[in-house]
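Hey, can you fold this one?
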Amino acid sequence: MAACNWIGMDVHSSFYEGGWMNNRGQEKGSFHVATRIPALVAELEKVAKPRVVVMEEGPLAEWLNRELSPFVDRVIVTDPYRNALIRLTGGSWRSLLAEDMCVRFITMTI
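Sure. Predicted structure:
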C-alpha cells in the first residue's frame, strides 16, 4: 500500500476527532463529528482511496472496526499505553493521531 491516505482518529463516546495525511506526511484535513457511523462515514468518504484508519484500542474499537471496514482499505488499532506515553511528552490529538500514529505506520509499510 505505497500511496495511501492515513486517517488518525481519537474516539470518544460522544464524538470522533481526527485528521488525515498522505504518505509524504503532509496533513490534508481534520474532522470533529458526533459518534454516529453515518457522520463518520461521510467524513471518511471525503478522503481519497486507498485509506487506512488508525485508532487506539478502547471500548468502541471493535465496533468501529466492524462498521468502518466496508468504507476503508484497512483499520489499525494501536496500543493506548504506548500512545499515552507520547501524549505525556506534550503531543496533542493532532500530533498524536494525524501525525505520529500515521507516520509510524507509513514508515513501517514503505
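DSSP finds four helices and five strands in the chain. Let me know if you want another pass with a different chain boundary.
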